[in-house]
Structures are given as structure tokens and as C-alpha cells.
Specification:
Blueprint lengths: L1 H8 L13 H4 L9 E5 L4 H12 L3 E6 L2 H14 L5 E5 L5 H13 L6 E4 L17 H28 L3 E6 L25 H26 L3 E7 L12 H10 L7 H4 L1 H8 L10 E3 L9 E3 L1
Parallel strand pairs: 1-2, 1-4, 2-3, 4-5, 5-6, 6-7
Antiparallel strand pairs: 7-8
Helix pairs in contact: 5-6, 6-7
């Protein structure tokens, strides 16, 4: 109950921050000029705010986006606010493995380090359809796309860690919706089965896959002795363009649970905190949740 009270009231937790804190507030004083971060879906919503705040703190931000017009507009917006911001944009369609491979090749060709990989982009509650590669589109975009991208860039991250001595971070934007997956979990043998398809459970399935991906990658990196942490984060409830396929339902939900919802600067707080802070107590292979608890007094699920 104390966690719920702090969430609703915005009272700060032990860190000094609470559910009403913004990403800009929790990163105050952070110098990220020696860091390079890649943000997928950085042209709008949570990704845009994450890119803005990281750039404000001096981080060199690479925005991966399908809509290059929107991505360049996002870049220009950030640079107008922070003239010294270092922002680059590259085309990335997570629904296409060809696009993902091309993006990775283009990024590697820049010969940049990569300290932080933020797997943020996603789609939600879509009617049944298949990706360009013939995979159910939510699973393809939310999980397979980020899984492939991470694998393609992992050597770059490992080399960056060796050269810089700075801990690398991979963060998967997950969701508490993983609890509302299909009853038997991920339908590995029925990913593309239209019969019995539920757009909401399919979304939960993709978010569960994000968590399992983070857990297993973290385990393997620990075994290798690589100083890269991998975690999945549920940022909280927020109305974003992701809800465009279920706008009426989400508005109804928000009406009855308005006190739990956050705005974009607030919902980005936990993500930015884990990406730029040195956290000796931060354990890999965890999902950090800040819906039912105030920020930084989180429920943690294995």
C-alpha cells in the first residue's frame, strides 16, 4: 500500500525521486559526453523524450526510425533546444530483417563506439498480419527485430567496453502486459496462426519475449565475463501512439485508473536513470516495474 500511495502522491522514495519526477530531473548533473547511445523508435513518444534527455546530458544519440521525415524533425527539435546536441538518424524498420541488417551495417560503418542500446520501438494491439519476413507482426517488430539488432551490434558493444572500461547497457522496453500473454505462454509453434489470435495477448507474448531475451543474454554475458548489463523495464502507464489500434478501450481504462497514468517526461524517468547512472546494486536478469510502485522503489520480478 505504501508503494501505491507514493505512486499516486508522487512522494519521493529512498533515491530522492518519485513517480512525479521527470527524466530531466533525475539526470541533472550527469555528464554523458563520453557515451554513445542508440535509441530505436527515437522519433516519437518515449523514444523521443529519451533521446532529448540523453542529448541534453551530452550523450551522442543515434536515432533508429522507420519514418525518416519524423526522425529528422525530432533531431531538429532536439538541436533547437540543445544546440550542442550530437544527434544522428539512421533508417530502421524493425519489421524487416533486411532493414535491420542494413541499419547495423550502416552503424558499424560509422566506426562509433556503442555504450548504450535502447530497444524502445514497438507496436501494440495490431490486427493480425504478417511482417515482410512472414512472421506475426507484433512478435516480429517487438521481439525478433530487437533480438536480431542486439546480436548484430553486440560485438561493437563488447569492443567499446574493452576500449573504454565503461559498463555497457542494453535495455529492453518491456511491459507489465507480459502477464497477459496466452495462457500457455509464448505460442512458439503457433506464432503465425491466425486462428485463436488475440491482438492483446499477442502483444503480451512479444513483451514476455523481451524479458526472456534480456534474461538469457544477461546470463550469457555474465558467463563470458563481459561488463554489459541487460535489463527489461516497464516504464508505467502512458497514452502514446502505440494505442492507436485500441484508442477507445485505453481511454476507458484511463478514465477508471487516471491516478496511475504518467506523462512522457515522467514515464521516461526510469529508463534514463538505468541508462546513465552507475548503479553498483543494479542486478542483471531482472525486470524493473514502476506501475504499482513509485519510481526507484520498484517491484522486481525474476
Amino acid at each position: 500500500m505504501d508503494g501505491v500511495f507514493r505512486l499516486v502522491s508522487g512522494c519521493p522514495g529512498p533515491s530522492g525521486f518519485g513517480s512525479a519526477s521527470t527524466a530531466q530531473e533525475v539526470t541533472e548533473g550527469i555528464d554523458g559526453t563520453n557515451l554513445t547511445a542508440l535509441v530505436t523508435g527515437g522519433a516519437s513518444g518515449i523514444g523521443l523524450e529519451t533521446s532529448r534527455v540523453l542529448a541534453l546530458r551530452g550523450v551522442h544519440v543515434i536515432i533508429g526510425a522507420r519514418n525518416m521525415k519524423a526522425a529528422n524533425e525530432a533531431k531538429n527539435k532536439i538541436v533547437r533546444e540543445t544546440p550542442r546536441a550530437r544527434i544522428d538518424v539512421l533508417e530502421l524498420d524493425l519489421c524487416s530483417t533486411n532493414s535491420i541488417r542494413s541499419f547495423a551495417d550502416n552503424f558499424i560503418a560509422l566506426h562509433l563506439p556503442l555504450n548504450i542500446l535502447i530497444n524502445n520501438a514497438g507496436i501494440m494491439f495490431c490486427p493480425f498480419q504478417l511482417s515482410q519476413d512472414g512472421i506475426e507482426v507484433q512478435f516480429a517488430t517487438n521481439h525478433i527485430g530487437h533480438f536480431l539488432l542486439t546480436n548484430l551490434l553486440l560485438d561493437t558493444m563488447k569492443n567499446t567496453v574493452k576500449a573504454s572500461g565503461i559498463q555497457g547497457r542494453v535495455v529492453n522496453l518491456s511491459s507489465i502486459a507480459h502477464n497477459y500473454c496466452y495462457k500457455k505462454g509464448i505460442r512458439f509453434h503457433k506464432i503465425n496462426d491466425k486462428q485463436g489470435y488475440s491482438e492483446k495477448r499477442a502483444y503480451g507474448q512479444s513483451k514476455l519475449a523481451n524479458i526472456l531475451h534480456a534474461n538469457e543474454l544477461s546470463r550469457r554475458l555474465q558467463e563470458e565475463g563481459v561488463n554489459i548489463t541487460v535489463n527489461s523495464v516497464h516504464p508505467g502507464l502512458i497514452m502514446t501512439p502505440l494505442f492507436r489500434h485500441s484508442a477507445a478501450l485505453m481511454k476507458l481504462l484511463k478514465f477508471f485508473s487516471f491516478f496511475l497514468w504518467k506523462n512522457v517526461p515522467q514515464v521516461t524517468t526510469t529508463l534514463c536513470y538505468f541508462r546513465v547512472f552507475t548503479l553498483p546494486t543494479l542486478k542483471p536478469m531482472k525486470q524493473f516495474v514502476c506501475v504499482l510502485f513509485s519510481n526507484f522503489e520498484m517491484g522486481i520480478f525474476n
